[in-house]
Amino acid sequence: KPRVLSGIQPTADSFHLGNYLGAVRQWVALQDTHDAFYFLADLHAITVEHDPKLLRKRTRTSAAQLLALGLDPARTTLFVQSQVPEHAELGWVMQCLTGFGEAGRMTQFKDKSAKQEVVSVGLFTYPILQAADILLYRPQYVPVGEDQRQHLELTRDLAQRFNSRFGKTFTPPEAYILKDTAKIYDLQEPGAKMSKSASSPNGIIELLDDPKVSAKKIRSAVTDTGREVVFDQENKPGVSNLLGIFSALTDRTIDDLQTAYDGKGYGDLKKDLGEVVAEFVTPVRDRVKSYLDDPAELDKILRAGAERAREVASATLSRVYDKTGFLA
Ligand code: ATP
Ligand code: MG
Q: Which segments are annotated as binding site for ATP?
């Protein structure tokens, strides 16, 4: 089976719909046909200021959400990044292969650092650690949202650079990005992506929010001038975003929705989308609650995942250390 790998940061109490539609939904779909590795990127979560207690809580809540959304630890290796020390170790080797200017071209760093009061070196080098995260497992595909495309390119470049300096070791992995859901936008700022750490609370639809709160956020989403419900990314980014989410959650096509809302207004679309979201999140929230009722069991699943992950990761790291010239 071809291998896939991806990760998500435990940087918030809840995932948002962008995380689900852009990434996690594909993770769930791929676990049947692929050898799947998915991890909670807690090393990445400390690149911005964090509270240790909250991080521990969020790591468990994130794991519970992944399970509630359909990841099956029997078929998938689900683990926590910091429990596999090879990530940090390969990360160092990758840092030494990356040019300073090359790292400086990462647009996500520019966006994120502009919003932080204190900018850590870790935030700057995070895409390089991410390259290590990926290459350790030698996957063919990396299912992510559009915002990760540039980081995936860096990963491919570093894989090729390592190969050309030290001999063939890695196959550059490919980004697996589904066009329709690659970028879900902030409800209040439809030019920016919905983000756990950068969006305002009203800009994101959180899976664990009370559906009434989500419905209210959708009702107050920034829409566009005019009143026709038509998909037009350029001139009507707000309405287009709502249509995209609606379509993704119901499997109704955009065309079908445009026809259904012909002659109706934004208000009807928003009201109905609130109901669609409620229907989706309600069972997910219940399942998350029941996983969180038993944190010891959750920790056990993650420990077992880390053990399986380490088998693959340590084999790759040994090869890399050997080729780099470290003593065995
Ligand atoms: P943070 O703001 O802390 O970076 P995030 O919302 O960007 O959080 P990540 O944990 O960085 O979430 O990313 C997890 C996955 O979700 C990645 O594959 C990323 O590409 C995807 N993703 C994040 N935001 C969106 C979005 N708005 N639309 C589609 N996919 C997204
Ligand atoms: Mg992110």
A: 9-11, 18-19, 145-147, 184, 193-197
